[in-house]
Amino acid sequence: MFCEKCGAQVNEGSRFCTECGWVLPAEVPVNYQAAVSPPATESEKKEKKEKKGFFSSGAGIALVVIVGVAVLAGIAFGAFLLVRNPNGEVDAETVKVWDEYETILEDDSNAIPRITLDQAALQKSQEDLKKQQERVAALEKVLKETGGTQARRSGRKPKNTRDIKAEQLAAALAAYNRYIQKMNELFIALVGANLLDQNVVNTLNQILAELQKLGATVKVTAEKFLDNNTKVVTIKIDPPILKVAEQYSADVQANVTAAQQAEQQRIAAERAAVEAAAA
Fold it and tell me: Are 139 and 100 in contact (CB under 8 A)?
């Protein structure tokens, strides 16, 4: 499939072009219901998480549940549907972006990449992190197009609840994007890394320390969006992805210890060979 607006290739079944944000043709009821869904039950939340694994879906799939399309007077089919909420609460489109963002955060922690020196595994981890960045970038694009009021989208300073919450969610997305970028930096540093070099180990530890700080920022920015936000059912933010820095530190140390032990064994074997030859 190709986007009719910019010509970029898109995945079959995608509703939006990840290059330009154009809504792809689809049979969607004109009277699209944009109201916020009722709070999900615990069983529904569990089922939702089980359907999606970490790094499992592309940006096109991620956008399917984010925005609706409608035919409005004077607007061609495929325009973004903006919810006008007269009481100034968070608009439904922003809530939908949050719902997808939360799904990304809460994906299956068993699929989160582990620290390894296997080059093929490192490459796969970098590819998965890139897909995750694409999903977040797609959400940022949709929020920019649909979140808050027209005043916010025109660049004016947020003054009402809708615009303030849209700005807070934008900050949360940006913080998570920086977090994923730092994770990618860590895996790049591991490619061909000599863990017997203390400078290399120091670099990895520095990245891990920065990763912990960025993870804390992700949590803080997400909680700002949730604060006094009656439109979102989330109680707290404590996703497994934000806890990987501690596990990564243990993984790096385990690999360093293994490299040191292997080097000691190599040196001992060489000495034994020299002694045997001298005898």
Answer: yes
3-state secondary structure of 178: helix
* Cross-strand pairs, 75: 72
17, 22, 54 from 60: Cα distances, Å: 7, 11, 16
Task: From 154, 135, 151, select the one nearest 66 (Cα to Cα).
Answer: 135
* Closest by Cα among 62, 80, 65, 225 to 138: 62
**What's this model's pTM, rounded to 2 decimal places?**
0.64
- DSSP 8-state secondary structure symbol assigned to residue 55: T
- pLDDT tens profile 11-67: 776 666 776 766 666 543 434 343 344 555 555 555 544 444 433 344 433 343 333
Which residues are bridge partners to 9 per DSSP? 2
| Token pair of 250 as six digits | 């243990």
